[in-house]
Amino acid sequence: MVYKTSGVCSSEINFEIDNNTNTVQAVHFVGGCSGNANGISRLVVGMPVDEVIKRLEGIHCGYKPTSCPDQLAKALKKWRSDK
Known about the structure:
Number of domains: 1
Mean pLDDT: 97
Number of helices: 3
Largest sheet: 3 strands, antiparallel
Order of helices and strands: EEEHHH
Distance between the termini: 11 Å
Structural class: alpha+beta
Radius of gyration: 12 Å
Low-confidence stretches: none
């Protein structure tokens, strides 16, 4: 799935979910801070969607009211609601 982000340096998040287990299989941020985005992506692979949302939702980036991790949580919530 492709999620267009807002309010962050990354322009979109591409991710794959295993529909049978509801676990994150892959995450790729387009743009943004490469090291942080790659770190987040590797950490969440294999985690249940609900756990990723719980851990990342509400994280801010400096003065911004959102962050790339928060945007990933929003993307996963959208995936969950569209399922």
